[in-house]
Amino acid sequence: MIGTVFRSEDVPAEDRFEYWRELVGRTRSSDLISAHTADYWAEYRLMELGPVTVWPSSFLPTRYRRSGKMVRRSDPELYHLTLLLDGDLALEHAGRTDTFGPRDLHMVDGSRPYDLRPADDRDRRAVKG
Fold first, then answer.
1. What are the backbone angles phi and psi of residue 118, rounded to the nearest 5°?
2. Which residues have C-beta within 8 Å of that of residue 66, sequence separation ≥ 6?
3. Which of 17, 19, 60, 117 is the S-S candidate for 36 at Cβ 3.0 to 4.6 Å?
4. CA distances (Å), 117 to each of 36, 107, 121, in order?
5. In terms of C-beta density within 10 A (0-12 exposed, 13-18 middle, 19 or more buried), how is residue 62 classed?
6. Is the pTM for the entire model greater than 0.70?
7. For residues 100 and 108, what is the distance between their CA atoms, to the nearest angstrom?
8. What structural domains does the chain harbor?
9. Alpha helices (H) along 15-56
10. CA 13 to chain CA mean position, Å
């Protein structure tokens, strides 16, 4: 098992969101947008278990979008399975829009466009999963 730990407080405030974007980009190709970039907060632990990557994480509300163009450019044929522990997320994927809350499990097929975002982006409450 190979592991990586990230805590945003270990990075200067002005670099935190870009650093988070880079880390997330290692596991899923998507555009990240947040209203909290100036004082972004996130932490995660990345564990590679053979063909499976596990990354428990907590972060301020962030939108993760993967466009059709991104899928055509690079399709790693990966699924992303999330068990949400705290916070609320809305997901547009495969022609559907669903909302998820604590203890909900959802799956995203990275071979299709998706838009995963906080259900209420005005709140600074961290999303945890």
1. -60, 140
2. 28, 29, 30, 31, 110, 113, 114, 115
3. 60
4. 13, 14, 8
5. buried
6. yes
7. 13
8. 2-128 (2.60.120.10)
9. 16-25
10. 19
